[in-house]
Write a structure and sequence with these properties.
- The chain is α+β, with helices and mostly antiparallel strands.
- It folds into two domains: 61 residues; 168 residues, no CATH class.
- Helices cover 48% and strands 27% of the residues.
- The chain has seven helices and ten strands.
- A hairpin with a 2-residue loop joins β3 and β4.
- α3 packs across α4.
- The longest helix has 53 residues.
- The chain is elongated.
- Keywords: Membrane, Transmembrane, Transmembrane helix.
Length: 255
């Protein structure tokens, strides 16, 4: 009896299958195809989402690593800079200028930061705000760097720039400049400020002339670019070149 029952069930299933195929057989391939396509799409979507998450995570990680590498490189460069206090010329700087001034002296002298600090000390002391303390100078590649601690309100003055920056320029902090040094005429050079940093923040280039102007507005000098500070030099100097961490002063031709 049990065997006949099982045979009967199989017969019923077979008949039902044949009937279904007869009724829907023409649509069966498309149904199976849609089912397979849907399954494949779901697998593809899942793989794409997983890939996007992976790319996003990797992108964030790579960006973080690149940022850390840049900060580390910048810190390394900063630590390699040799700073010298701006003070009246020491023996080496004084002797270099004296030799250049002699009729039978050398055609040029090269100065490192400590010697340059002595040469620039007098002129810079008249340009920096009265609140400036611990002014220092350094030479990096083709630029001369100057840094000092100042009352930040002295940098912006009392004009529109002060109103624009507001409380950002309150208190004392480090003012740092980087720029080029070129001769204007015998006895006068110009220090063109290419970069200016206040409170560790780089000032946008468009604002540099206004800040530089606030520092030397009381100084009478030849017509200079708006981003330049006047630097007095001995009249024995005919030209100035900054390269490879040194400032070279060339001797004026003595008639």
């Amino acid at each position: 009896m049990g065997c006949l029952s099982r045979i009967g069930c199989i017969v019923v299933l077979a008949v039902g299958g044949v009937g279904a195929y007869w009724l829907y057989g023409d649509r069966l391939p498309s149904v199976l195809s849609r089912a397979a396509s849907g399954a494949a799409s779901r697998v593809t979507d899942a793989a794409t989402q997983a890939s996007e998450r992976l790319d996003s995570n990797q992108g964030a990680r790579i960006a973080s690593e690149n940022g850390a590498a840049r900060r580390a490189e910048r810190t390394k460069r900063e630590q390699a800079i040799v700073w010298a206090r701006l003070a009246p010329a020491g023996s080496a700087g004084r002797e270099s200028i004296a030799r250049l001034s002699r009729r039978n002296g050398p055609a040029f002298v090269s100065l490192r930061a400590p010697d340059l600090a002595g040469v620039l000390a007098t002129g810079m002391s008249k340009l920096l705000p009265a609140s400036a303390t611990r002014p220092e100078v350094a030479i990096v590649d083709e630029q001369v760097l100057v840094r000092t601690v100042v009352e930040l309100r002295d940098v912006a003055g009392d004009g529109a720039l002060r109103g624009l920056l507001g409380v950002a320029l309150d208190g004392r902090d480090t003012l740092r400049m980087a720029g080029t040094l070129d001769l204007v005429r015998p006895g006068l050079a110009e220090y063109r400020v290419r970069e200016l940093r206040i409170k560790g923040i780089d000032v946008p280039p468009r604002l540099i002339p206004a800040l530089v102007g606030a520092m030397h507005r009381a100084v009478t000098a030849d017509s200079l670019p708006s981003d330049a500070l006047p630097i007095p030099l001995p009249k024995a100097v005919a030209d100035v070149r900054v390269a490879n961490g040194k400032v070279t002063l060339y001797k004026a031709v003595v008639p």
